[in-house]
Amino acid sequence: MKRMIAVLLTMLLVCGMIPAQADEPDGYMATGGAIPDQQAYPGTWQQAYLQILNNHSAKIHLYQSRTLEYYADYTFEQINIPCRPVSLMELTGDGIPELIFLEVATEERGDLYIYTSDGASARCALYVPGIARLGYNDVDMRFDIYLSSNAGGTLVIEYYEYEKPWKLQLMRNALNQYFLLNYMTEDYDPSGEGDDDHFYLNGTDVGMEVYDTAVLAMRDAKTTVISDYIAEDLSHFGLNLTYEEAVFMMGGSETVSPEPTAEANTEEEIYGLTIDKLATRKGPGTQYEGGGTYSVKGQYIRVLARAYDKRNGIWWVKCAIPYKGEERILWTGYKRFDKDQLPLESIPIEEGW
């Protein structure tokens, strides 16, 4: 009986018969949290996602044509960062990545879509209009998207816009669609004196202390990071892939397949699916200088070569990690990649180590 009730509640939520559990930001409320694309796209996840990207190609390219311009601290050097509005990251734990992308909706706004696949078809899991404000400096454009709590079942979106930032906490249902759990917003006194600042949780003024406690609880439970702007990472003005890179990785090119071949072919680029953060070195071994740790778990990273660490008896992989608008060429342990998706023998050996 309990199972039947749970199924009925899920169906009601999906069909929109139960209202959202929290007050919503203007754009999200305008749609009632509804998903405009109800179509099921048949085929493998690669085939379905390629069709979806093709349908949204024009608006994704409009977003991609933007650049983020900001001035570096102290030197005040102007830096232009290209947009990367697409990502392939696993959010649901089923081994199949979700398709995440931003597209230009109006002159000043960009919309967020997330599609999910069960391996036989794909469908839209989340639509949030107006997540990105375009054409302003970096202070007005930060947003942070990440999974937290309940084994990643909660998706959090934090968006900073001058004087009135907002945050969404969304719960994933049985169909891997996201519905609103909590909505938080800050309303700052424009005078800068702070005498009339307000902090709202689901439309109720809760005061700064309660508000900060709720926000910190979400951040402390952070797991998979999709787009991390709160941590000052403005690297891609959105996500981590261009439209072309995403298509390329899913086999949209006639000359390149995203899946590694059984034998290494140095004429083709190889991508590996990460299963952990990438702790890196500047050479294939712990005896080399560290290159930093990168939160790219669940992403496809371009792999260049492998080398054997005789000291520790392990294989290291040389890869190109996207960071701040460029690629950092560094080494990490082969154990941090999905071995079924990236067979060791598919990676060319780099001699001289």
Describe this structure in words.
- With about 350 residues, the protein is of the alpha+beta class.
- The protein has two domains: about 20-245, no CATH class; about 260-345, SH3 type barrels (Roll).
- About 15% of the residues lie in helices and about 35% in strands.
- Strands 13-12-11-10-9-8-14 form a seven-stranded antiparallel beta sheet, covered by helices on one side. It has a five-stranded antiparallel beta sheet with strand order 1-7-6-5-4. Strands 15-18-19-20 form a four-stranded antiparallel beta sheet, with no helix packed on it.
Keywords:
SH3 type barrels; 2 domains; 6 helices; 353 residues; globular; five-stranded antiparallel beta sheet; seven-stranded antiparallel beta sheet; alpha+beta; 20 strands
Question: What's the end-to-end separation, in Å?
Answer: 63 Å
What letter string, H or E per element, gives the SSE order? HHEHHEEEEEEEEEEEEHEHEEEEEE
Helix content class:
10-25%
Q: What percentage of amino acids are in beta strands? A: 35-45%
Radius of gyration: 21 Å
Give unreliable regions as ranges.
1-24, 136-140, 230-236, 253-267
Q: Report the count of strand segments.
A: 20
Shape: globular
Instruction: Tell me, rounded to a whole number, the average pLDDT.
Output: 76
Secondary-structure-based class equals: alpha+beta
Largest sheet: 7 strands, antiparallel
Total helical elements: 6
Strand order of the largest sheet: 13-12-11-10-9-8-14
Q: How many domains make up the coordinates?
A: 2
